[in-house]
Amino acid sequence: MSSKIPPLLESYLALPPEASLILLTSVLGASTNWLVLRFLHSTLLNGDASIVDGSEDDTKIVLVSFMRDFAFWKENAKRLGLDLEKAAAKRRFAFVDGLSGLFLPKQQKQPVKRPGEKRLVDPGLASISGEISNAIKDLGEAGEVVLVVDQLDLLLATAGGQVGAVDITDLLTGLREEVHSVVVTLSADYPLVSTQQTLLETNHAAFLLNVAHQADFTMSLRLLDSGTARDVSGVIRVTTGDQEMHGSGLARKIEERELLYFVGGDGGVRVFERGQ
Fold first, then answer.
1. pTM summary value
2. How many Å is the Cα radius of gyration of the chain?
């Protein structure tokens, strides 16, 4: 596998087994962006294979992002040698923009010019589900589709109490039935899940707990308990649900562990064990 993927994370970032759910959680100062990018790299490039050589039978990805636009993912993926526009042209990648059309008024009326990209403009859950389903179908029936949803919990924060944890859970459950597997990123900051004094805190904690309970395994990012360090960005903890995950007919065991990671200024990431 490419050296762009930290060796200690290769087994966690490989193609998930069918019907699996993987949860990535973040806190302020410890974003999951670099994990999502490496999952895209691992899945779309299939180790050493290039997108140009890939066929429609290869694994495909639909990335839905509510916090970051396509420009962000495109630029940072290029640092890893991954061309998302080329992947979209080969019908192996689709992007659903959940930021521009819903939360950036100046960009709502701008036409979408890139192939494989859709823009959400209606905040209704039925409309959101429909657009994501269309993006999945547009990739064709051949090959397995992995759905990656970045910051789905933002819908709870922006709905003004009109959308609850059950509604978002139902949305996610419905989408899981349409794809090979799902990777979802959620915020797990302490103020959102501890006190639960407001409706948002209650809904967020309930949704996070529900997804964590359903997930086959969770990769949680947090800052160092002792504070900041020059050569350590944070801690990544892997916890499993069902220890036996079956993919391609082979039983795969996910090892629970806690590792340190460092994200460099150039976007490079080093993952290592304590004491190394």
1. 0.91
2. 18
